[in-house]
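Blinded run. Sample ID left blank on purpose so nobody reads anything into the name before looking at the predicted structure. Input follows.
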Amino acid sequence: MELRLPELPFPLRSYGPDGNWSYEDGTLTGWAGPRQDRFVPPTGDSLEPASDAPRLLGAAPEGDFQLIARVTVGFEAAFDAGVLYLHVGDREWAKLCFERSPDEPTICTVVTRGHSDDANAFVVAGRSVWLRISRTGAAFAFHASTDGTTWTFIRIFTLGDEKTAGAALVGFLAQSPVGEGCVVTYDHIEYRPTWPDGLRDGS
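Blinded prediction complete.
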C-alpha cells in the first residue's frame, strides 16, 4: 500500500507485516501484531534473519532534513513501542523508539550494522512524546522532546556512506516484541529540509 501525507514531500509505502496503516485529520495510525519487532540480537548468529515489524517508509529528498512527530503508544506489554525509523540496507538501519522498557515509557535507540545495539536514554511521564530524526551528509541525529519545542539530544551516528545515507528510507514503525500487539499514533508530523541549528542546545 502507499500513503501520501500532506505534511511530507514524499509518498510512504508499507514494508514488513501488515500494519493496518491509516491517516485521518492529521493523525497516522499503525498496529503492531503479536511479537513483532525489528531487531538482530548482538549475541546471535551473523546469518540469522532480522525479525520484522510493520513499517511505513519513504525516500526523503536529497540533502539535509528533519522528520518530526508526536508519538502516542497504547502500551500493553514490555517493549511495545512507537518508532521513527530509517533504513539504508538489509542490515543497516536504526530506530528511535518511545518504548515501555520494560516497566516505564522510555526513549530508546537501536542502530543496526549487521547486528543491533540497544540503549536507553530517559524515562517519559505519560504515553506521548515528540521524536525527531535528522540527516546531514552521512550523519544522522536522534532527538526527543516532551513539549515539541525543547529538544534533548540522544545520539549522532553514521550509516553507510554519504551515497547510501542520501538514499535512506525514513518513516514510522510499530512493534510489540513480547506482547499481543499495540496501537501507535503519530500526529504533529513535520518535515524540515534543514539540519538542526545545534545538537545539544535544545534547538
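Unblinding after everyone has recorded impressions. Helices lie at 162-166.
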